[in-house]
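User: Structure please.
Assistant: Input sequence and predicted structure:
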Amino acid sequence: MEKYEMDKEYTQVNRLNSEKMDIINRRIEAELEKDSKINKP
C-alpha cells in the first residue's frame, strides 16, 4: 500500500516537472526566435 502511494506521488512530481520543462522550453524558443529576428540583416 505504501509503495503504491509513493509511486503515485512520484508520478505526480514527474508530470509537474515535464509541464514545467515544456513551459521553460517554449520560453527559450520564443527568446531564440526574437534574437534571430533581431540579428537578421
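The mean pLDDT is 86.
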